[in-house]
Design a protein that fits this description.
Isopropylmalate Dehydrogenase; two-stranded antiparallel sheet; 2 domains; 337 residues; ten-stranded mixed β-sheet; binds nicotinamide-adenine-dinucleotide; single chain; alpha/beta
Length: 337
């Protein structure tokens, strides 16, 4: 049966790594009718709109998208389209697994699934400047919003995921000692939800700073982590670093209406157009997508081929110690299928 899905190639290295991923999906024998759409800087250049209606309509129709990274201007210009897409489709759960595959790294037994609340917290977009005297920008404030509704559904998602994947423990990561109301509510709700899973999966709590320290000293003690938006954003880059870098970690943005699969990393402007980007993160995002649509067998085949190629270290890209181009690495993964 043909699957319908939206493809957003993205900016920077996006087109290269999504092309590589499409080749892998094709080789795995999955029939997908891709509706190619634009977003981010590519859309600004083509139609002067970073998030065109046609793209939103396409995702509304297919409810499934694979997305390359999108450029966001720093400190000015349009707001992040990644954040806007998550909001537009209420993609409340961001699932970012990090697993040791590359041999010879400092840690060899990391296997963490980080579940990040994706629609609230400090990323809700309530920000303003405060004028003092003549200075229009004398101060600035950003508001963090945590709702009981949002906290409940993300904790429930994390615990359900832990049970579904046969995981042993969920760590609630917070800063409720300082941000007593917003983080306090998040933690309280987490504790309530955890009770529903008593006997099925263990629960523990960590303050985010202590968690960051432990992640770089004893990461193997972590299993599933659930946390708020900003902490999840930062800690998931950290867990990427533990397993060999940003080129390796995927992220699924899941909601009731749609799901968007992407890499954790950005557009990598320093290597864009050079044909050397590592497509693994988007390939693994495609595996998450296959799991999501009930094609776990295909996801496993693709994952095994990717992991075997990485483990062997013969034909890998330079960010993980090799010399292969994006295309050569993709050929090697496909040969493994
Ligand atoms: P980045 O993730 O693009 O790059 C950080 C470093 O990691 C760079 O040295 C880069 O070369 C390397 N890297 C990243 N992906 C790689 C890959 N697949 N293979 C090899 N090396 C890789 O982060 P940045 O430079 O801070 O951000 C660049 C742009 O990306 C910004 O506009 C930012 O807003 C955007 N961004 C988008 C997303 C997204 O679309 N989900 C996520 C993060 C950043």
């Amino acid at each position: 049966m043909t699957l319908n899905a939206t493809l957003i190639p993205g900016d920077g290295i996006g087109p290269d790594i999504t092309d590589a991923t499409l080749r892998l999906i094709d080789a795995a024998g999955v029939d997908i009718a891709w509706d190619r759409q634009l977003a981010g800087m590519a859309a600004v250049n083509a139609v002067s709109d970073p998030m065109p209606d046609a793209t939103l309509d396409s995702i509304r129709r297919t409810r499934l998208a694979l997305k390359g990274p999108l450029e966001t201007p720093v400190g000015k210009g349009f707001r992040s389209i990644n954040v806007a897409l998550r909001k537009a489709f209420d993609l409340y759960a961001n699932v970012r697994p990090a697993k040791s595959v590359i041999p010879g790294l400092r840690f060899t037994d990391v296997d963490i699934v980080l579940v990040r609340e994706n629609t609230e917290g400090l990323y809700i977009g309530i920000e303003n400047y405060i004028k003092i005297g003549d200075d229009e920008r004398a101060a600035a404030q950003s508001v963090a919003v945590v709702t009981r509704y949002g906290a409940e559904r993300i904790h429930r998602y994390a615990f359900d995921l832990a049970v579904r994947l046969g995981r042993k423990k969920v760590t609630l990561v917070h800063k409720a000692n300082i941000l007593k109301l917003s983080q306090g509510l998040f933690l309280d709700v987490g504790r309530e939800i955890a009770k529903e899973y008593a006997g099925k999966v263990a629960v523990e709590e960590r303050i985010v700073d202590a968690c960051a320290m432990e992640l770089v000293s004893k990461p193997e003690r972590y299993d599933v982590i659930v946390t708020t938006n900003l902490f999840g954003d930062i800690l998931s880059d950290l867990t990427s670093g533990l397993v060999g870098g940003l080129g390796l970690t995927p992220g699924a943005n899941i909601g009731k209406e749609a799901a968007i699969f992407e890499a954790v990393h950005g557009t990598a402007p320093d290597i864009a157009g050079k044909g050397v980007a590592n497509p693994t993160a988007v390939m693994l995002a495609a595996c998450q997508m296959m799991d999501h649509v009930g094609k776990a067998d295909v996801a496993t085949r693709m994952r095994n081929a990717i992991e075997a190629t990485l483990r062997e270290q013969q034909t890998v890209t330079r960010d993980v110690g090799g010399t292969a181009t994006t295309a050569e690495y993709t050929d090697a993964v496909i040969a493994r299928l």
